[in-house]
Amino acid sequence: LSSVPDAGESxxxxxxxxxxxxxxxxxKTRSRETRFARARAAKLExxxxxxxxxxxxTVYLIIKADVRGSMEAIIGSLTELSTSxxxxxxxxSGVGGITETDANLALTSNAxxxxxNTRADGAARQICEAEGIDIRYYSVIYDIIxxxxxxxxxLLEPERREEILGVAEVRDVFRSSKFGTAxxxxxxxxxxxxxxPIRVLRDDVxxxxxxxxxxxxxxxDAAEVRQGMECGVAVKSYNDVKPGDKIEVxxxxxxxRSI
Length: 259
Known about the structure:
The protein is α+β, with helices and mostly antiparallel strands. It is 32% helix and 39% strand. It is built from 5 helices and 12 strands.
């Protein structure tokens, strides 16, 4: 025998070595097809799980380690990272080297393979290289945790943070041949910026959101006007500004989040 058979395998008596090789090849092919069928089933299960939790992004992993204790420690540490927005799903885990089966499962489940003090065999490496499967080797558990945290952070929706830059109070309204309705204002808070988004408020209720058509200091165009100064403004595509209204200038910052 060229290799040790699995426990429970049945022996078949055949006339010659050629027939024996044919039977062995048939069994090998059938075994591979069975593994692929299981992998496809796993993929369908993942799809159904995703449909159940559409709002939760997921990092899929296959964990292979040198000993069971390390494997369990890694799985425990990673699953604790899951939040209501991003989850860690261990598709498969085991002790020993990374095999062709692991590579095929990673392909069908879109998982990253993590090897802790283990390596991939030749067949697994070929599949990973051909299919672009992410396979990573580690010898320190904390390095695994850090990398998975980074991957999870990349799936988080960024935070949209708004900052009010300045507020101008409308003191007078007049007609402009160039802009239509223009407003004479006093900057009562912060700085009014020409190229930032604005809101028009009436009795502290937002009645329009857009941008400035013009910002002037006396007769000169201005990029910004500071608190305590008068200015003239025209709001783009809006001509219903009235005395007492407030023009609020704001900025929106998109901030990356991390686990």
